[in-house]
Protein backbone atom coordinates (compact mmCIF):
# COMPACT_ATOMS: atom_id res chain seq x y z
CA UNK A 1 0.00 0.00 0.00
CA UNK A 2 1.41 3.37 -0.94
CA UNK A 3 0.55 6.82 0.39
CA UNK A 4 -0.67 7.74 -3.08
CA UNK A 5 -3.01 4.72 -3.19
CA UNK A 6 -4.34 5.47 0.28
CA UNK A 7 -4.90 9.12 -0.58
CA UNK A 8 -6.75 8.17 -3.73
CA UNK A 9 -9.10 5.91 -1.80
CA UNK A 10 -9.81 8.58 0.84
CA UNK A 11 -10.32 11.46 -1.58
CA UNK A 12 -12.60 9.66 -4.02
CA UNK A 13 -16.35 9.65 -3.50
CA UNK A 14 -18.26 6.43 -2.92
CA UNK A 15 -19.63 6.38 -6.47
CA UNK A 16 -16.14 6.95 -7.91
CA UNK A 17 -14.70 4.13 -5.80
CA UNK A 18 -17.52 1.79 -6.84
CA UNK A 19 -16.97 2.59 -10.52
CA UNK A 20 -13.21 2.14 -10.20
CA UNK A 21 -13.59 -1.26 -8.53
CA UNK A 22 -16.30 -2.31 -10.98
CA UNK A 23 -14.19 -1.48 -14.02
CA UNK A 24 -11.17 -3.25 -12.54
CA UNK A 25 -13.20 -6.36 -11.75
CA UNK A 26 -14.58 -6.52 -15.28
CA UNK A 27 -10.99 -6.41 -16.56
CA UNK A 28 -9.95 -9.06 -14.01
CA UNK A 29 -12.68 -11.39 -15.23
CA UNK A 30 -11.34 -10.85 -18.75
CA UNK A 31 -7.92 -12.07 -17.60
CA UNK A 32 -6.07 -8.75 -17.30
CA UNK A 33 -3.08 -9.33 -14.98
CA UNK A 34 -2.37 -5.64 -14.46
CA UNK A 35 -5.98 -5.06 -13.43
CA UNK A 36 -5.75 -8.03 -11.04
CA UNK A 37 -2.69 -6.59 -9.29
CA UNK A 38 -4.30 -3.17 -9.05
CA UNK A 39 -7.63 -4.54 -7.83
CA UNK A 40 -6.01 -6.58 -5.06
CA UNK A 41 -3.88 -3.62 -3.98
CA UNK A 42 -6.86 -1.25 -3.88
CA UNK A 43 -9.08 -3.89 -2.25
CA UNK A 44 -6.37 -4.42 0.37
CA UNK A 45 -6.55 -0.74 1.29
CA UNK A 46 -10.34 -0.89 1.46
CA UNK A 47 -10.22 -4.02 3.63
CA UNK A 48 -7.70 -2.52 6.04
CA UNK A 49 -10.15 0.33 6.57
CA UNK A 50 -13.07 -2.11 6.90
CA UNK A 51 -11.29 -4.20 9.55
CA UNK A 52 -9.72 -1.25 11.37
CA UNK A 53 -12.59 -0.87 13.86
CA UNK A 54 -13.33 -4.60 13.99
CA UNK A 55 -9.97 -6.24 14.71
CA UNK A 56 -6.85 -5.73 16.76
CA UNK A 57 -3.87 -4.54 14.66
CA UNK A 58 -2.01 -7.85 15.04
CA UNK A 59 -5.00 -9.76 13.60
CA UNK A 60 -5.78 -7.40 10.73
CA UNK A 61 -3.05 -8.22 8.20
CA UNK A 62 -3.74 -11.97 8.12
CA UNK A 63 -7.48 -11.48 7.67
CA UNK A 64 -6.91 -8.95 4.90
CA UNK A 65 -4.72 -11.49 3.08
CA UNK A 66 -7.31 -14.24 3.64
CA UNK A 67 -10.08 -12.03 2.28
CA UNK A 68 -8.02 -11.02 -0.76
CA UNK A 69 -7.42 -14.70 -1.48
CA UNK A 70 -11.16 -15.41 -1.10
CA UNK A 71 -11.88 -12.49 -3.43
CA UNK A 72 -9.54 -13.88 -6.06
CA UNK A 73 -10.93 -17.41 -5.83
CA UNK A 74 -14.52 -16.12 -6.10
CA UNK A 75 -13.80 -13.59 -8.86
CA UNK A 76 -15.82 -15.45 -11.50
CA UNK A 77 -18.96 -15.40 -9.33
CA UNK A 78 -19.35 -11.60 -9.32
CA UNK A 79 -22.17 -10.38 -11.58
CA UNK A 80 -21.22 -7.16 -13.38
CA UNK A 81 -24.86 -6.03 -13.21
CA UNK A 82 -24.58 -5.79 -9.44
CA UNK A 83 -22.50 -3.36 -7.32
CA UNK A 84 -19.01 -4.54 -6.46
CA UNK A 85 -18.48 -3.02 -3.00
CA UNK A 86 -21.48 -4.73 -1.30
CA UNK A 87 -20.22 -8.01 -2.76
CA UNK A 88 -16.73 -7.39 -1.38
CA UNK A 89 -18.20 -6.30 1.95
CA UNK A 90 -20.16 -9.57 2.09
CA UNK A 91 -16.97 -11.58 1.67
CA UNK A 92 -15.19 -9.44 4.28
CA UNK A 93 -18.04 -9.74 6.77
CA UNK A 94 -18.19 -13.51 6.46
CA UNK A 95 -14.43 -13.79 6.93
CA UNK A 96 -14.66 -11.54 9.98
CA UNK A 97 -17.54 -13.53 11.48
CA UNK A 98 -15.63 -16.74 10.83
CA UNK A 99 -12.63 -15.26 12.59
CA UNK A 100 -14.77 -14.35 15.61
CA UNK A 101 -16.31 -17.82 15.74
CA UNK A 102 -12.84 -19.35 15.84
CA UNK A 103 -11.56 -16.80 18.33
CA UNK A 104 -14.35 -17.35 20.85
CA UNK A 105 -14.99 -21.03 20.07
CA UNK A 106 -18.62 -20.43 19.12
CA UNK A 107 -18.59 -23.42 16.78
CA UNK A 108 -17.23 -26.96 16.80
CA UNK A 109 -14.53 -28.02 14.37
CA UNK A 110 -16.89 -30.60 12.91
CA UNK A 111 -19.05 -27.79 11.54
CA UNK A 112 -16.26 -25.89 9.76
CA UNK A 113 -16.69 -27.65 6.42
CA UNK A 114 -20.45 -27.18 6.49
CA UNK A 115 -20.09 -23.50 7.42
CA UNK A 116 -17.62 -22.89 4.61
CA UNK A 117 -20.07 -24.52 2.19
CA UNK A 118 -22.86 -22.20 3.29
CA UNK A 119 -20.61 -19.18 2.79
CA UNK A 120 -19.78 -20.25 -0.76
CA UNK A 121 -23.43 -20.86 -1.59
CA UNK A 122 -24.39 -17.44 -0.21
CA UNK A 123 -21.90 -15.88 -2.63
CA UNK A 124 -23.82 -17.49 -5.49
CA UNK A 125 -21.21 -20.21 -6.03
CA UNK A 126 -22.40 -23.57 -7.33
CA UNK A 127 -21.19 -26.87 -5.89
CA UNK A 128 -18.95 -27.27 -8.93
CA UNK A 129 -17.49 -23.81 -8.40
CA UNK A 130 -16.81 -24.67 -4.75
CA UNK A 131 -14.87 -27.76 -5.84
CA UNK A 132 -12.87 -25.70 -8.34
CA UNK A 133 -12.12 -23.08 -5.69
CA UNK A 134 -10.94 -25.84 -3.36
CA UNK A 135 -8.66 -27.18 -6.10
CA UNK A 136 -7.33 -23.66 -6.72
CA UNK A 137 -6.59 -23.31 -3.03
CA UNK A 138 -4.80 -26.66 -3.02
CA UNK A 139 -2.65 -25.51 -5.96
CA UNK A 140 -1.83 -22.29 -4.14
CA UNK A 141 -0.83 -24.21 -1.03
CA UNK A 142 1.65 -26.17 -3.16
CA UNK A 143 3.47 -22.95 -4.03
CA UNK A 144 4.48 -22.08 -0.45
CA UNK A 145 6.86 -23.92 1.86
CA UNK A 146 5.75 -27.10 3.63
CA UNK A 147 5.79 -25.37 7.03
CA UNK A 148 3.73 -22.46 5.73
CA UNK A 149 1.17 -24.76 4.10
CA UNK A 150 1.02 -26.89 7.25
CA UNK A 151 0.33 -23.86 9.46
CA UNK A 152 -2.31 -22.47 7.09
CA UNK A 153 -4.11 -25.82 6.78
CA UNK A 154 -4.26 -26.42 10.53
CA UNK A 155 -5.22 -22.94 11.72
CA UNK A 156 -7.01 -21.28 8.79
CA UNK A 157 -8.69 -24.29 7.18
CA UNK A 158 -9.14 -26.93 9.90
CA UNK A 159 -9.74 -24.46 12.73
CA UNK A 160 -7.09 -25.49 15.26
CA UNK A 161 -5.67 -22.83 17.56
CA UNK A 162 -2.12 -21.54 17.12
CA UNK A 163 -1.12 -23.36 20.32
CA UNK A 164 -2.62 -26.63 19.10
CA UNK A 165 -0.94 -26.27 15.70
CA UNK A 166 2.35 -25.60 17.46
CA UNK A 167 2.07 -28.82 19.43
CA UNK A 168 1.12 -30.82 16.34
CA UNK A 169 3.91 -29.51 14.10
CA UNK A 170 6.78 -28.76 16.47
CA UNK A 171 6.84 -25.15 15.26
CA UNK A 172 6.80 -22.46 17.94
CA UNK A 173 3.62 -20.41 18.30
CA UNK A 174 5.38 -17.32 16.96
CA UNK A 175 6.68 -19.30 13.97
CA UNK A 176 3.18 -20.60 13.25
CA UNK A 177 1.92 -17.01 13.13
CA UNK A 178 4.81 -15.88 10.91
CA UNK A 179 4.34 -18.81 8.53
CA UNK A 180 0.61 -18.15 8.24
CA UNK A 181 1.10 -14.47 7.49
CA UNK A 182 3.95 -14.97 5.02
CA UNK A 183 2.25 -17.93 3.36
CA UNK A 184 -1.02 -16.07 2.84
CA UNK A 185 0.86 -13.07 1.50
CA UNK A 186 2.80 -15.22 -0.98
CA UNK A 187 -0.36 -17.04 -2.09
CA UNK A 188 -2.19 -13.77 -2.69
CA UNK A 189 0.75 -12.40 -4.67
CA UNK A 190 0.93 -15.55 -6.82
CA UNK A 191 -2.80 -15.49 -7.40
CA UNK A 192 -2.58 -11.87 -8.49
CA UNK A 193 0.12 -12.53 -11.07
CA UNK A 194 -1.49 -15.77 -12.27
CA UNK A 195 1.77 -17.66 -11.79
CA UNK A 196 0.34 -20.54 -9.78
CA UNK A 197 0.51 -23.08 -12.59
CA UNK A 198 4.07 -22.14 -13.54
CA UNK A 199 5.41 -22.26 -9.97
CA UNK A 200 3.54 -25.43 -8.99
CA UNK A 201 4.86 -27.29 -12.05
CA UNK A 202 8.52 -26.72 -11.16
Report the strand count. Answer: 0
Beta fraction: under 5%
* Terminal residue distance: 30 Å
- The number of distinct helices, counting runs of at least 4 residues, comes to 11
Radius of gyration over alpha carbons?
17 Å
Elements, N to C (H/E): HHHHHHHHHHH
Q: Describe the biggest sheet?
A: none
Oligomeric description of these chains: single chain
pLDDT average, as an integer? Answer: 75
Shape: globular
Percentage of helical residues?
over 70%
Low-confidence stretches: 1-8, 105-132, 195-202
Derived structural class: mainly alpha
Describe it:
There is one protein chain. This protein is mostly helical and about 200 residues long. It contains eleven helices and no strands. Helix 3 (about 35-50) packs antiparallel against helix 4 and helix 3 packs across helix 5. The longest helix is centred in the C-terminal third of the chain and has 21 residues, at about 175-195. It is globular and about 50 Å long. The two termini are about 30 Å apart.
